[in-house]
Amino acid sequence: MTLRSDQFMRIGLIAPPFISVPPNGYGGTELFVALLAEGLAKRGLKVIVYTNGESTVAVEKRWLYSRSEWPVSAEGCGALKELEHAAWAVGDARQSCDLIHVNDAQGVACSTFADLPAVHTIHHPYERPLSDFYKRHPHIRYVAISDFQRSRESLPGIRTIHHGIDLAQYRHCERKQDYLCFLGRIAPIKGTHLAIAVAKKAGIPLKIAGEVQPMFRDYFDSEIKPHIDGKFIEYLGVADLSAKNELLGNSRALLFPIQWDEPFGLVLIESMACGTPVLALPGGSVCEIVREGVSGYICHSVEELAVRAARLEISSQSVRRYAEERFSVRRMAEQYAELYETLGSVNPPRDHAHPEKQRSSTAAHWGDPQAEAA
After folding, report:
1. Of 91, 94, 245, 348, which has the fewest Cβ atoms less than 10 A away?
2. pLDDT digits (tens, 9 = 90+) for 228-238
3. Strand partners, 60
């Protein structure tokens, strides 16, 4: 992205307020925001991340709420908190930024009241009510995180930008230990119980890491916990970046027996970055993220997964190389920067040294009494 010094673009990147950016444990959207923000900053863009006060992302941060709250304690209060955060962030970004990039539905609604170009990355699977809601906000430029996700939407101008990660934070480990791993939320749709079945059929130990959310506590207690013996089946709890490197890097393969249409699956490329192949069931974007025989295998049953686990013939070097070619944060940031530049060419960067000029030019749009009187 090339801008003159007098056209310095400022990006307001708005995350939900509940989880820090980057997250300490689980938080796919928050990890995306952190990686994108720092990737854009390395390209010379000015980025302001709207988050909570516990965030440590290495760009300017602004927040309304000082602490994280996950899981959200009360659903009604959580919705109000998210709406208040989005409204405040959009209002602040309107005065400070040239473009707003929102990451939830509340941000989409609030962006209507900012006279700025806006981008929304869709992080969730297709949901008819949300898609209908998005259609009522055509001022937004929508981004899908996979071609599969984009194929389910009918939004004008929607494009795909795959996630990327900072590959330097993931250690490529060539010598693997004799175990399989599962990393992700412990939930039926993630197929944790199927990972256990694969390990038992293959006769290979399994290490499980991930969050057990309150709504899935019964599932964990009935379907997962009875199999945990601390030897053949281990549960390690929530994994931070260091633990991910240890778990993924040393594993023979990551099991991804997904039971729903996964929009992307960050753990897939995290595993590949460690040189660890993925053994997955097809679902959603899996077939476009995992390259058969290069970065893993896509199977169609627990039995096929077990056979592949016992007879892996993929080198760690080819897996890591595939991740470097396809899923770097540099590539992701470049594609978003190109999108911002396209939108910014229609709405050139503003004079942030004199925000009152911007206020006066749009005051009538915001219903300013003085402007209306004039």
Report:
1. 348
2. 999 999 999 99
3. 48
pTM of the model: 0.86
* Beta-carbon contacts of residue 222 (< 8 Å; ≥ 6 apart): none
CB atoms within 10 A of CB 79: 12
All structural domains of the chain with their residue ranges? 5-164+328-373, 171-326
Query: CA 21 to CA 363: how far, in whole Å?
Result: 33
* Fold designation for 5-164+328-373: Rossmann fold (3.40.50)
Architecture of domain 171-326: 3-Layer(aba) Sandwich (3.40)
Domains 5-164+328-373 and 171-326 share a fold: yes
In this structure, the strands spanning 180-183 and 60-63 are unpaired
Residue keyed to tokens 């004199």:
354
pLDDT in tens, 135-146: 999 999 999 999
How far apart are alpha carbons 154 and 269 in whole angstroms? 27
Taking alpha carbons only, the member of 215, 226, 223 closest to residue 193 is 223
Residues 286/271, Cβ–Cβ less than 8 Å = no
